[in-house]
Structure formats: structure tokens, C-alpha cells
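Sequence only, no structure available. Ideas?
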Amino acid sequence: MTTPQILSFAIIAGAIVTFAWGRFRYDLVSLVALCIAVIVGVVPIKGAFTGFTSDVVVIIASALVVSAAVAKSGVLEATLAPLLGRLKSLPLQVPALAGATALLSIVTKNVGALAILMPTAIRLGRTEGSSVSALLMPMSFMSLLGGLVTLVGTSTNIIVSQVREETVGRPFAMFDFAPVGLCLTLLGFVVVSLGWRLLPRDRQGRERLEDGTAEEAYSTEATVPDTLPDTLGTIADLALDKDKIVVVGLECADGRRLPAGPDTRLVPGEILLLEGDDEGLAAMFARLPLLPARSEHALESAEAHTEVRSIETVIQPDSPLIGQSAQRARLQDDFGVKLLAVGRRNERITQRLREVTLRAGDLLLIRANDTALPEFVRSQSLLPLAERAVKLGSPRQKYGPILVLAVAILLIAFKVVPVVGGFFGAAVAVVLIGALPMREAYGALEPEVLILIGALTPISEAVQHTGGTGLIAAGLAHALTGVAPIIVLGVLLVTAMACSPFLHNAPTVLVLGPIAVLVAKQLHLNPDPFLMAVATGAGCDFLTPIGHQCNTLVMGPGGYRFGDYWRLGLPLSLVVIGFGVPLIAFFWPMAGG
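Reply:
I predicted one. C-alpha cells follow.
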């Protein structure tokens, strides 16, 4: 071996060992590896940052932004609401949520799909008394399988397509992965629908800091619009219990207070006084034509670079707001702040928002632009609570993100635009139409994953350019000479599956993809099935929480331990190996290399 080959192998090996050790962050390890590669001359300085501008990074980042916009739209929550109301037991809940996650992973990146549906699963588990630990892992595993179906479903497919373009001359198309991916997804669905019983059901998930007030009851108000559908005649027709909302009062347009019962007729202009948590109230406003608390004038951003957002605060004992109401304090006129809701522990508020006399310890849900918020919070002695995505008061583009995503997929499928152009354009479009503020778009990105891929791409290319991949490929080809091609295919799939927990799924494809192509060429076989095997194996880590970010994402909320994953993951891995290899060989003939 030459010195550059030895150095490139040593850097990759060092990264693998450090990944497996788990002492340092993946992104930090990858950046250090890139620095070392530049210092020793394996990666030229001019090519050190090409990975950060690669199509792979742009596609993944764009898919995450689009997924966040779809999640915020509330369309999926509204679509699933009738179904979730009928899911009273785990044998029904697991297949429904796992299947929904798989379907969503087909059209958006799998980690985005899982992030969209996880809150729904956690909420369902808590309200129905089900085991959250029995729900989340099947959803994670099905997000991995659903991601195998399309080019954009998982980063491994995107990367293997780029490897194919660089080595063979053409990338994979949007639905080239579908025949194998759909079959494995259906088989996996059967396994998780039955195998969830192997999982522990008594684990308590770790709550995030921002979840401490996520279910705090707030009091707010909604106005009955001028026109209502025929199906909404009474308060009972609103089905507020679906969102855990209680009507605590009703005020007519002329200011009279009336009792509010299930049979009370809804009259345009009436104001309903409501109580519920932030997510429930936001879901209700997304589902029903009721109008949120009105203001004398709309809030506006002070400058082009500022945005209007909602935050939670608590009134401290020395606040000048104590003893004041929103109306007397002239919050919107003097401060440009809109009061959305008030929360008070152990007491139900039955007054209009503008009339509530504020007390120390009250929770205020307020909305203002970024310029007004800091000064208002400081001057009124308010304590901002843990930063989390507050849904109530945030405007939603209900169908915009779904339409943008559908258009992007159609344009990509019919090859009108390349994948990178389609998803980048979709990400820009959801921000442009107001479906996702720039602050939330930046928050949707996963910098750890993007840096991991961007930093390791030049190192993987260095292994190839120094002849390292050719050296490994020649060794594998020599060892596998005379072996049935389907066995070679299985070896590559299992190797990728074994490497994924330690090397991470994206670097696994970056390293093994070019090797698979060279092995196929030296054996005079078609490289496409071997690339498919690498992508499938790398995308199917069901045995650990570290091989894919979806498994990591559910570990805390599900209360899982490292050793819990193999319980359901082992049978699922055996199904992927046992059926995946013949499926790949059937849909992608190996002859003709």
C-alpha cells in the first residue's frame, strides 16, 4: 500500500473507533477527521469543503425544512384525528401509527416524518393510558423502512444515487428504490404489528425541559364566524373533547353572559371562553372555523429581518402587570404585544382575556415581534419559560406545504427538475408563502447530520482517489471468486448493516458504495443491485440507537435502553436479510456488468 492509502485508511479507522467509543459527538469526530486529512495531505485544502456544498447536504436540509412546514400545517393531525379517536388499545395503535409513519417517510425524509408524528403518539399514549415505549420504536423502525421506497426518503438513498452518478455515470431516479422498498416495508409492517409485544411497556420516557409546561391549562377565547357549516350548529357539534378543550363561558355580541351547554346554539359573533393546553387549543383552531382572540390591529414586524412569534412567560412577584388587566395595561397599544391566553394553576378563569386581573405566577402566552419581546419581558418583569414551539397564535398554512411538496415530487418524478432543485425550491417556497418562518426553518435543520456528511464526504473521496477502494475491492473480488452472485450480494448487505451502527449510515454508504461498484465490475456483474444492497443494509439499523438518528430520536421519549432495540430489531433485521437479498436480485438482475 502507498503512504496516502495508509493515511486515508488510518483516518477512516480512527473515526470508526471513535464513533463506536461514543465518547465524543459524531459531528465533532467528523470535523477532526477532516482536519487531520487536510493536515497530512490526504485531502487537498481546495477540496476540503466540497462535501458541504454537495447535492446530498442540500437535499437533506431542504427535506427537513419541508417536513417541518408540513408538521406545522396541522393537516396530518386533522387527517388522523378521526382515526386516533377509535384507537383505544395498543394492538390498534401500533399498526396505525407505524403505518402512518412509513407512508409519510415515503414522501419526506424519514427523520422528518417521525418528528411530525412522534408528538401525536406520545399524546395518544398518555391520554389513552397506553405504553409510549410500545409505540415509538415500531414507528422509528417503520420510518427507516418507509424511507427505502423513494430517493428522498433517507440520506442513504440520496448518497448511493450520487455514488452511482460518479462511478457509473447516471444517478438513480426518484422511484427506482420503490419495488424493493415497498416489499420490505410491507413485510416490516407485519413484523412490527405483531412483534411490538416483545418490547418493554413499563418504561417512563425522559421529558424535555420545554415539556414541563407543555400541558399547562390555558384560558383563551374564540369568536364564532359569520358563516358556519351546516354540521356545526351547537357546541356539542364542535367535538371539543377530542382536543381536551372545555367551554367555561359564552358571551353574546351585546356583552350578555349566557350558560354554555352541549345543546347551546352557535350564533355568529358570540365569543366562547375556552380552557385547554397549547397543543389542544392550536389543534382545535386548525380543525374548526372558529376565530382566535381578535385584536384592534394586527401585529407587524418592526423590520424586515424580524419575525412575529409566540412565547410563554410567567409573571414574577415584582411585575407591574400584577393587579392589571390586558385592557388596562394597554399591552398591544403601548408595547405591541398581543395576549393570546392566560394560565393559572388550580383555578379556572371564566372572564374575557382583556378583563382578567393578572396575578404573580400567572402564565401568559404572548405574541409580538422579536424587537418588542425583549424589552417587554424585561420592563414587565416576566420570566420566559423554556424555549419550545408554541403553536397557539402561530398562523398556519393548512394546505400550502402539502401542495408545495406534491408539486415538487411530481416535477422530480417526471424529471422536469433534478432532485436537488425540486426540494431546494420546495424549501424556499414554504418559507416564501409564510408556512414556516425563517427562525423555524433554521431550527428544522439537523446541523449534526449535515456536518457529519459534509465532513466525511471528502475523506471518502480521498480513499477512492488514492486507490484504497480499489485495493479493498480487489481483495473482496478475489475472496468471492467462484461464489454465487447472490451470496456476494448478501455479504455486501450484511456488511453495510453491520457497519451502520459504528460508522453511521451515511458514511457507511460513502465508504462501501464505491467498493460495491468495483467488486461488481471485477466480477463482471451489474453494479446496480450491489449499490441497492449497500443502501438497504446501511438504512436498516434496527439493533442500536446510534446507527440512525430516528432510533436516537425515540430513545429518550420512549425510555429505551441500548439493549432494548434488538428485541424487535433482531427479527426485523433477519426479515430484511432473508427477503431483501432475493428481492434485490429479482428486481435488479446481476448479469450484464
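The chain has a mean pLDDT of 84.
Hope that gets you unstuck.
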